Amino acid sequence: MRARGRSRLTLIVSLLALAGLACSLPGQAAPTVDPNIVALAVQQTLQASGEGPSGPPPATIPVATEAPSPPTDTPLVPTPTVVHVVFPANPGGTTSFMTDRSSAALAGERRSIGDNLDTNLLERPFTANVMDYRGYLDINRGELSIGAPWIYVTFYLEQAPPAGTPAFYGVEVDIDIDGRGDWMIVGAAPPTTDWTTNGVRVLRDTNNDVGAAHPMASDAPSGGNGYDELVFDQGQGSDPDAAWIRLAPGSATQVQVAFKYMVIGSPNTWTWGVWADEGVNKPEWLDYNDHFTAAEAGSPTSGTSNYPIKALAAVDNSCRWAVGFTPVGTEPGICPVPPTPTPTSTPTTAPVDRQPPSVQVLHAPASIFEFITSVTFTATAGDNVAVTRIRIYVQGPGEGSPTLVQTCSNTTTCTFTGGPYSGGQGSYFATAEDAALNLATSGTKTFWAAAS
Description:
The protein has 3 domains: 2-49; 96-323; 358-449, Immunoglobulin-like, CATH 2.60.40.10. By secondary structure, the protein is mostly beta strands. The protein contains 4 helices and 21 strands.
């Protein structure tokens, strides 16, 4: 019996050793050894000798599975965290400003006046084709303030930017005063009055092709690449604090952009203008009047062959004004002289003329019982400072829309005689503006012409 027990013990040890050897053979992948098989073999050996327990095999022992291979994908590079050090404050006294024509008075008629595609002066705060008015794109004034190290620019708009609009507001800088923009600081419509770099970019024209062959004039179609270098992108760049945007505290219809003076090279003299754009949003296409022909762009002026606005829609820009010098009026893109902005040496804001002129218009003769061969239209206007321009528009009987028939400058009275007209009812109105580009529109009146 003792010899038999030693034989059984030797067999059991051999089984266990074999299991262990199978796990460590050199030059081979280690197989997975199921401990349940080893346990069953030991139990059967003992039962065969009459010393092991009888009955069902032991409960199954969980088998360890092979550990998964580690992932081999390239690890993701984390996005750099933008850490801001210097923040803008609030604008101080106005250094330079310009005014821009408002289209609010004519918005209900789905038209504007003052747009000039040929000279890159755009007044198009309307949607394409339908001509729905977008007051948050309608700039009526731009102000620039310098407070080291910042340049502050405030956009005065007719309406507050709505949440989620893709509009951007841009400051264009011409540092060599040749009519070609050199820098463009643009920002997405800001949601709050907190300064943010989100949606703010600074772009530069590296090959001097903004404006194409003839700066400010239309060269369409032209294939330049406009502002082709992205210098700052939402905090990414050599200076994470280079440019910011916000809604002005206390006024949702004002947008403020701040950028460091050194971003544009700290020039002593330069010109600047402002943009609002929700339609094209492609700085690389500037100037837009070099990219779109007149037929492609359409027109906001009713009664013209290119009306309504087409591809070049939902955009407004201003003329340019000076920093560091007094313009004489011959600088490319410069605003009319006067008005003269606040001198750069004066830290206070000059009074602003916001009072529009008054204008009325009449026609003669007024009786429909006379044989009418011609009709004379007379517009009179007045202003608290001076009337600079009067325009008369007439729509004769059977004609499609009012047409500009007369423009008079630097006078308070303007007259136009038209006809003969076909029999029926016609209409007419007049507009007047002052040196500050405040605009007034008379009510639309009717006249009757008797057929001959």
